[in-house]
Amino acid sequence: MSNELSIQQCEACHSDAPKVSDDELKSLLKQVPDWLPEVHNNVMMLAREYTFKNYKLAWAFANKVSELAESEFHHPAILLEWGKVKVTWWTHSIGGLHKNDFICAAKTDQLL
């Protein structure tokens, strides 16, 4: 199901762009079922932790996520640890979730 999202491109997002509604959130989460909504400092974000056999594999994945972020001009938080990478997407300009975050989550999953 995330294939639909993964073929879409992020759209330019301004501070007046609408955040996803509660109904949209439910629908979009079904398309990226391994991702979880999290709230930090009153900002809704989309997060997933990936596990790897060692640091080098985790590092390589984090680099792929960075390249994706640059190509989409949409940048997540990436926490790199030994054998783990946590990726957190949200739209900074609106202080919450936009469809772009779900598009990038689906594309992140395809980097594995």
Please write out the topology:
Elements: H1 2-6, H2 22-31, E1 36-40, E2 43-51, H3 55-72, E3 77-81, E4 84-89, H4 99-109
Antiparallel strand pairs: 1-2, 2-4, 3-4
Plain-language structure description:
The protein is an alpha+beta fold and 112 residues long. Helix content is 39%, strand content 22%. It has one domain (20-109): Gyrase A, domain 2 (2-Layer Sandwich), CATH 3.30.1360.20. It has 4 helices and 4 strands. The protein has a 4-stranded antiparallel β-sheet with strand order 1-2-4-3.
Key features of this structure:
single chain; 112 residues; alpha+beta; Gyrase A, domain 2; four-stranded antiparallel β-sheet; globular
CATH class category name: Alpha Beta
The CATH topology annotation reads as: Gyrase A, domain 2
How would you classify the helix and strand content by structural class?
A: alpha+beta
Q: How does the major sheet shape up?
A: 4 strands, antiparallel
